[in-house]
Amino acid sequence: QVHLVESGGGLVQAGGSLRLSCAASGIIFSIYDMGWYRQAPGKQRELVATITSAGFTNYADSVKGRFTISREYYKTTMGLQMNSLKPEDTGVYYCNANYRQYDYWGQGTQVTVSS
């Protein structure tokens, strides 16, 4: 059974930092492309950052230079270091694992940035 469990969300002031983590189990972690997505109230879910099975990264323009995605293969975890947070970064952050037709999501973790 596949489990993606996010942690690290919380309330932070603008300009602050948070680090999210996603613990994956039940999948062959090394072959999956991984990603973080977020959904703000009343908005659609959007891509934040992705990291391929080979370690190549991609970021939404809105977070470039502020967020860093990473993965640790031996721990089967993925991280998202978020610096210089802005109120518009507020939302529920979801972990995603994708390999061909296999696509899994975590339950999400809330990030709230106060101004």
List descriptors:
single chain; 11 strands; 115 residues; globular; mainly beta; four-stranded antiparallel beta sheet
| Structural class category | mainly beta
Radius of gyration: 13 Å
Which word captures the global form? globular
What is the tally of helical segments?
A: 0
Query: How many beta-strand runs?
Result: 11
Description of the structure:
The mean pLDDT is 97. The chain is globular, with a radius of gyration of 13 Å. Helices cover 0% and strands 56% of the residues. By secondary structure, the chain is an all-beta fold. The strands form 2 sheets. Strands 2, 4, 5, 6, 9, 10 and 11 form a 7-stranded mixed beta sheet that branches. Strands 1-3-8-7 form a 4-stranded antiparallel beta sheet, with no helix packed on it. It has strands spanning 3-7, 10-13, 18-25, 33-39, 46-51, 57-59, 67-72, 77-82, 91-99, 102-105, 109-114.
